[in-house]
Specification:
Blueprint (H helix, E strand, L loop, with lengths): L1 H58 L5 E7 L5 E3 L9 E6 L5 E11 L4 E9 L4 E9 L14 H4 L5 E2 L14 E3 L9 E3 L5 H24 L1 H5 L2
Parallel strand pairs: 8-9
Antiparallel strand pairs: 1-2, 1-3, 3-4, 4-5, 5-6, 6-7
Amino acid sequence: MQTMSQADTTEPTISLKMLKAMVGIGIVCACLIALTFEYTLPRIENLKAEALNKAISIVIPGMVTKKTFGVDRNNNLLEVNNKDKSPHLLYAGYDENGKLMGLAVEASGIGFGGVLRILYGYDPEKQAITGFHVLESKETPGLGDKIEKSSDFLENFRALDVSLNEDNVTLKHKITVVKNGAKKNPWEIDGITGATISSRAIGNILADSTRQMAPLINRHKSNLEKN
């Protein structure tokens, strides 16, 4: 009886020590994770900023300086800090003389593999998309990722028509994705064979974004041209 009593007393003591040890290890691990995150966050943010600046330079070639604009609750364009988290951001690129060269607009939507974040160039004079770059993609390697690698697909965005009606509020034609080789109109996107969902996703993202942003940009065109 005495032996069993000692065993009963010992077992809870061991369990309590193990629990304390596990809690202690958990706290140490949590602290290490938090410290690692805090230490690496500035570098991660810097790398993201560098990647974004590179993408802006791709869709606005020759740009020397830029301004960042966001959309407020009243659907107006306001100059913002680069760190501001606005759901709709666009970047105005200027040459060495301060002349507006073009705009880079961020947009996002759902593709085959998840969220797609893109940046497209926009010429307010021509009212056309003049560049395209994928910022974030989880599309299938070898298929869906052709949206950022296929030269034929990227050719769609050299002069994709998004001109406005006379009311300057609506688009004359909605961006449409057609079967590969079937493109006949300047507002159509030649799709990718074998990556239909991904290419249609890009078309939908651009259609939704330009429907809102093209009239907004036209309304604030004079402010965007000032540098």
